[in-house]
Amino acid sequence: MSDTLRRLTDVFISRDPKIRSRLIFSWFAIYGYAAGSIVLALSVKMGLVPAQPVYWLLLYVWSGVLVFYGLVRSGWSTRIGYPGLDVPQSIFALGAILAGYVMAGPIREAVLPLVALLLILGVFTLEPRQVLIIGALTIIGLGATVAGMVWLEHGELDGRTALIKFVLCALILPAISAVTYYIARIRHRMIQQKVELRQALAMLQEVAIRDDMTGLVNRRHMLQLLDLQRERQARTGEGFCLALIDLDHFKHINDHYGHHVGDAVLRDFALCAVSVLRQTDVLARWGGEEFLLMMPGHGPGPDQMLQALERIRLQLAAMPTLPERPVTFSAGVTCHPEGESLRETLERADRALYQAKAEGRARSVVIGFQDNLGAPPPETPPQAAAQQ
Question: Please, what's the b/e burial string for 302-329 (b: 16 or more CB within 10 A of its CB; e: otherwise)?
Answer without folding.
Answer: beebbebbeebbebbeeeebeeeeebeb
